Amino acid sequence: MTASPERWRMVRRTVVTLLAAAALYEAAARSGIFPAVLVPTLPKVARTLVNLVQDGTMLWHVSYTLARVMCGFALAIVVGLPLGILMGRIRALENFVMPLASALMPIPSLAWVPVFILWFGLGDIVTALIVFYAAMFPMLLNAWTGVRAVNPIWLRAAGAMGAGEGALFRKVIIPGTLPFIITGLRQAFQRSWIAVIGAEMLAASDWGLGWVIFDAKEFLNADVMMASLIVIGGIGYAFERLVFGSLERITVLRWGMVQAAKS
């Protein structure tokens, strides 16, 4: 199966952007303006990254970080999506949950780290809960907005044809809400990915990409820090393009519910 022209254009744009950013960084690293120990060149960062991958250290850190983010992200899906959908259909639930969500959402997820450490100690539980907190509200609010945005004519037409509440959910509300749900998933993962790295810097004991960066800072290992940042950015980009982008293409784009941006 050959890639579409749009896909190749996207790949070219990505490559050009990354090469331009790499060239600017390398120019700054070699300019002598900054100490070499603090701003390592890209070849040195690449060698460090290869060594960390070859000895398995980076893979272990990645696996720990992904496990934590997936636990918290999955819990946020289980709680946030159904709650948001029900809020859009049940006014009493909306009136109860919305003030609480409006009060909690502005609080940065990392502000809860010291509190959770006091409650649960250091380790995976705190990190997963921080991810859950960061991902919860984008999912909940986007699902709620999607249900409220479903065309009432669709609901009335389905009701006139004898559709019950269950059929309305499966055949009208969920498909109509799906563009908002995918947007919520994207936003939630982005916030989760940021939150897990920050939480690992403060609450993780030994493993994780955030812990690597924090530990490398103590020893001025800027090449390790930059290598970890490259891995963090690469994983985030892969999820955005390969996971959520593919999900969008096989659902709402294919169904004609939204349109791709013109290049």
Description:
- The model has no long low-confidence stretch (mean pLDDT 84).
- The radius of gyration is 22 Å and the shape is globular.
- The chain has two domains: 1-34; 41-255, Orthogonal Bundle (MetI-like fold), CATH 1.10.3720.
- It is mainly α.
- It starts with a helix and ends in an 8-residue tail after the last helix.
- Helix 3 (57-89) runs parallel beside helix 6 (124-149) and helix 6 (124-149) packs antiparallel against helix 8 (165-203).
- The chain has ten helices and no strands.
List keywords for this structure.
mainly alpha, MetI-like fold, 10 helices, single chain, 263 residues, globular, 81% helix, 0% strand
Ordered list of secondary-structure elements with their pairings:
Elements: H1 5-30, H2 42-54, H3 57-89, H4 91-104, H5 113-120, H6 124-149, H7 152-160, H8 165-203, H9 209-218, H10 222-255
Helix pairs in contact: 2-10, 3-4, 3-6, 3-8, 3-9, 5-6, 6-8, 8-9, 8-10, 9-10
Output the CATH homologous superfamily of the largest domain: MetI-like
Count every helix, treating DSSP H or I runs of 4 or more residues as helices.
10
The appropriate CATH architecture of the largest domain is Orthogonal Bundle
Q: State the end-to-end distance.
A: 22 Å
Instruction: Give the number of DSSP strands.
Output: 0
This entry's quaternary arrangement is single chain
Derived structural class:
mainly alpha
Mean pLDDT: 84
Give the overall shape. globular
Overall radius of gyration: 22 Å
Main sheet, how many strands, which sense, barrel?
none
Low-confidence stretches: none
CATH topology of the largest domain: the name is MetI-like fold
> Quick one: CATH class of the largest domain?
Mainly Alpha
Count of individual domains: 2
Topology order in helix (H) and strand (E) letters: HHHHHHHHHH
